[in-house]
Design a protein that fits this description.
The chain is α/β, with parallel strands linked by helices and 169 residues long. It is built from four helices and nine strands; from the N terminus they run ββαβαβαβββββα. It is globular. The model has no long low-confidence stretch (mean pLDDT 91).
Length: 169
């Protein structure tokens, strides 16, 4: 739905929104920034993230792209993530990104002055045991929950999880 000139409302996944948005614009955007997402997007879980998928769609369309997520819960320090995203956007617009590269940014839920820097990392690896849990709703109907009781971590160094745990973006 077109709400006004250059303002549209799209019902769809984040990937759909990027794809359609780019196609209805006159000319490609210079940058796609997806987020700020409530909750981190770390390790293998990036494959389930609409925020990361939106940045991936931008990348697939040949547009420099990054996603931004806030770790933690409760009262989010969105200003910390917004300030960093603005600086990163300026840097990417000036210097670009390597072809077929997207950045997945996770920001600790801390005030700016408590951030301990920025670190480029790799994705951590984790696996869940008992991934599919069968349950019964109050009406007696079966349903399935993607979950797990125990998480197994791969012993890697320089991961996104480790950086976040040490207060780094």
């Amino acid at each position: 739905d077109q709400l006004e000139e250059r303002v549209f409302s799209i019902s769809g996944t984040p990937t759909d929104c990027i794809n359609l948005g780019v196609r209805i614009m006159k000319g490609k955007p210079h940058l796609v920034v997806a987020g700020i997402n409530k909750g981190e997007n770390l390790g293998d879980d990036v494959t389930y993230s609409g925020t990361v998928s939106a940045a991936m769609e931008g990348t697939l369309l040949g547009i420099p792209s990054f996603s931004v997520s806030m770790a933690g819960e409760g009262d989010y320090h969105f200003e910390t993530a917004a300030q960093f995203a603005k600086r990163l956007a300026q840097l990417v617009l000036k210097q670009g990104l390597l072809k077929d590269t997207l950045l997945n940014v996770n920001v600790p839920n801390l005030p700016k002055e408590k951030i301990h820097g920025v670190k480029l990392t790799c994705l951590w690896k984790r696996a869940y045991e008992d991934v599919i849990v069968e349950k019964v709703d109050p009406r007696g109907k079966k349903y399935y929950w993607i979950a797990g009781n125990r998480i197994i971590f791969e012993g890697r160094s320089n991961t996104d999880f480790q950086a976040l745990q040490s207060g780094k973006i």
